[in-house]
Amino acid sequence: MELKSKAPSGPIETRWDRHRFEMKLVNPANKRRYKIIVVGSGLAGASAAASLAQMGYEVSCFCFQDSPRRAHSIAAQGGINAAKNYQNDGDSVYRLFYDTVKGGDFRARESNVYRLAEISAAIIDQCTALGVPFAREYSGYLANRSFGGAQVSRTFYARGQTGQQLLLGAYSALALQIGLGSVKMYPRSEMLDLVVHEGRARGIVVRDLVTGAISSHSADAVVLGTGGYGNVFYLSTNAKGTNVTAIWRAHRRGALMANPCFTQIHPTCIPVAGDHQSKLTLMSESLRNDGRIWVPKKAGDPRAPQDIPEDERDYYLERKYPSFGNLVPRDVASRNAKAICDAGLGVGPGGLGVYLDFAEAIKRLGQDVVEARYGNLFEMYEHITGESPYKQPMRIYPAIHYTMGGLWVDYNLMSNVDGLHVIGEANFSDHGANRLGASALMQGLADGYFILPYTIGDYLARVSPKDRLPADHPAFKVVEQEASGRLKKLLDVNGSRTVDSFHRELGKLVWEHCGMGRNEAGLKKALQRIPELRDEFWKNLKVTGDGANFNQSLEKAGRVADFMEFAELMVRDALVRDESCGGHFREEHQTPEGEALRRDDQFSHVSAWEFTGVGQEPRLHKEALEFEYVHPSQRSYK
Amino acid sequence: MGRVSAFYDSLVGKKIIMAATGFILFGFIVGHLLGNLQIFLGAEPLNRYAAFLKSIGELLWVVRGVLIISFLLHVISSIQVALANRAARPLGYAHKKNIETNYAALTMQIGGPLIFLYVVYHLMMFTFLTTGPGYSHTDVYANVVASFKVPAISAVYIASMLLLGFHLYHGTWSMLHTLGISNAKSNGLRRALAPTVAVLVAGGYISIPVAVLAGLVG
Amino acid sequence: MKLTLKIWRQAGPREKGALATYQVDDINPDMSFLELLDVLNESLMLKGERPVAFDHDCREGICGSCGFMIGGVAHGPLKLCTTCTLFMRHFKDGDTVTVEPFRAKGFPVLQDLVVDRGALDRIVQAGGFISARTGSAPEANAMLIPKQNADRAMDAAACIGCGACVAACPNGSAMLFTAAKVTHLGELPQGQPERNHRVLRMVSKMQQLDFGGCSNHGECEAVCPKGIKIDFIAQLNRDFLKASLTDEMETLKRV
What we know:
The structure holds three protein chains of three kinds. By secondary structure, chain A is α+β, with helices and mostly antiparallel strands. Chain A contains 16 helices and 19 strands. Chain A has helices at residues 15-22, 43-55, 93-103, 110-129, 162-180, 245-252, 316-320, 330-342, 359-365, 367-385, 440-460, 474-493, 499-514, 520-540, 552-576, 600-603; strands spanning 35-39, 58-62, 80-81, 155-156, 183-186, 189-197, 200-208, 214-218, 221-224, 257-258, 263-269, 292-296, 313-314, 354-357, 394-403, 406-407, 420-422, 605-610, 619-624. Chain A has a five-stranded parallel β-sheet. Chain A has a five-stranded antiparallel β-sheet with strand order 11-15-14-12-13. In chain A, strand 1, helix 2 (43-55) and strand 2 (58-62) form a beta-alpha-beta unit. Chain A starts with 14 loop residues before the first helix and ends in a 14-residue tail after the last strand. The chains are: A alpha+beta, B mainly alpha, C alpha+beta. Chains B and C meet through helix 1, helix 2, helix 4 and helix 8 of B and helix 6, helix 7 and helix 8 of C.
């Protein structure tokens, strides 16, 4: 299989413009005859569904939550980047493009990234028009802040709830279309499988989570905006419901999965408090601006942190990285925390945590200033842990936060399966091996508002609505039967372990071997353990109730079953990518300072995997990456 | 759908009508109180005031008409709102703890009808003179004193005025809110206004039977 | 610590429900209330019993999925807090706590603590939006919005749509939810052209969906995890009155 990226050539500034002109258009009068399925209602899904419906297409939108407004985009705190240059600090489309390619450690497509930077400004306009209450100056102009170590202030924000406000904007645009009847919304509906017939995506099979009814939905094109797979790690900052099922099922039906080993860790999360822990909560990275990170020099020091004298503390980031200190990038801070804890020096329950200390900042700036800067974060921390960061250091630990990998798509956001489009975090594009802060929201909305609505037309113009299959076509019936068969199988195991116990074990396994630091021995061990665990899952799982009902443990079981298969691919990808880059750190490949060491001669490509069967070795396809504008260089934070 | 019927069909519209008519009735209650308090000036001023009211003829009926219509609208819309509110939670909670609301707000639907019953009784006693110990059509002062000398009548009166106070306590606060005459800055003021109004009105009315029973009047 | 839970169990929308009593031991004070239910559910499942169903997703207080009555209060005893961020250290060892679903005619129970809050979506669909077609937006800084308006809009827009206001209201009213959206968009210049339509249509839709009216009890504000103020209800009333007096009545026919 040859992977055609369809990325245009020529001067990068003109590529998207020219491509838009060259794409085929669907006649306005014909649009209503085409039917599009959008799965997922986050930033990407909701904005796409709303925009497509405005254009006249007939749209059906599905989400597993009780309302499209609950999608996990809502939890994004920090902000959204846009190359507006409102601060007159030298920002430009080119700079945002450059920062994103470099930030992604040279594993993203230049054409895609440039387009993203180009569209970024229009996103802010659109969101403002929809009523998103972005932060303002007293003059009434939009406010910006610098975020995630960027050298320019290009981040727009709405308090600490930017994701919420952007999602509610897209949700309101979607609500308008639902009210008009141009989008049919299916909440509490989970996509169980994709239907591919004669090489084209024809529709999906869905389970109504309230009644348990399984039904088929046919369309001319299918769009997946179903988010990332961070929950394969069980403990992550993702919402509990986020899952890999939609993209994994599409993968099993022929769509290639690209770079699954590119996962992002956030260094400042609240550590695990005990075995009951169900998810992790992220604290804004800005805390590292004034907090100092340390652990006691003596392992298992029983003293309270305040009682440990200065010379018995190890401020390990300041020691190892004198110029950047506590402000080293996310991945460096995360890896160092893990290394310190692995060496037995961690603090708090289970020794999985390091101190983030504000005592010095309070002394230097005064409590008032610290409170003004971080008051709400301190409150949130105290609310969750019962400890006051004013009196004792916070405890933090890294956690999985975002996944850069996903289904492979071309420049038109279409997968290698005709008609199957993938948007937002669910696809692999744009962020390369590492995502910059405040770029996830930008990408989700760029895909949904401004890219897919044009590019999908290029596909639709080539197919006829007359060829759409009826939903009772045998192609659908077969997939329906397989889906209900799978549910029945899950219910019939009747073993003695709950879904969560399997999920937790899988999560620990991949976190240990395919988390922040990865090495050949560990990855090989995981590759051996995952199939064993999967076998046990199918032999010893306990799911109560039946499938003809609202049954949350059955929903979970289906999702974990897919994680069990997906995890193996993620680990394999990490093993095969024998280099370090971005969020993927292979311990074998680091500079003497412990920096990720890329191997551009061998791995300057996208790894796109083809499914060949459960437990079978997948087939690897490579899309070579060329860098005409931003030339690969090595980062250094010494 | 006409503008008026659309407005009235809405629960928010009905609440606004309740608030507006409540305001008119409140105006009457205050005026009536000020008139009644003339009892402390002696028999002559009060009787002169009563005679004056009767002398204005058609105008009195206009005022009465407005009051009667306001009263009916207030009662009918409140019944309709109450029924809709009750229907909105067919199955109640096994355990419900209220945090912010108060007894006065929760008992508007009990206090309202009781006040209605009292108004009928009050009209029968002092306007139609079909009940109670007062007989004179001209000597209002004597009627009042004679009535309040009967402890049972005073007790019913005082209890009813306490109910009215409760009703006004929530009503004043609620009215301003429903009419949208409120914002974050004036919240403290409105919070203070409601009990003040309630205490002044109820206290003013109650002072009359108390004074009669204590022998200060009559 | 130990807790006795009296939880509403109801197998389906049309089944009868009742409170059932469960004893949970070995509670870690750092658990959230949802994690307490996780622990209970694990033990129920291993016994072959149906676990307690409850809605949840982000577990960090922003998605609005979770929420039920804990000890008679929506989202439990702590102010400005969702159920998922309510930690067990706020309970006393040996307490008995009643756990019930949000109750309103507009929120039918689907199972146990799970209710259908789709009615809130339908209220938004009636008018809780600005009709700005994708691609038609003007330059964002072409329209200046005073900071105090943007801030007030944000205060109202912070609503997470959890439905606690409806659950706590003695009248089962969705006024706070509706008022928050009306105020959010009404506070912004972009929201002015549709301001009358919005309030008339949203209020009318709310009523159609069997929610009660507002009696200004203030229970909604008291339980709102995001501290949405009932001042916004006054704003809605004002907007409604103004729209009723001035709007072309075409609006209402379209509801």
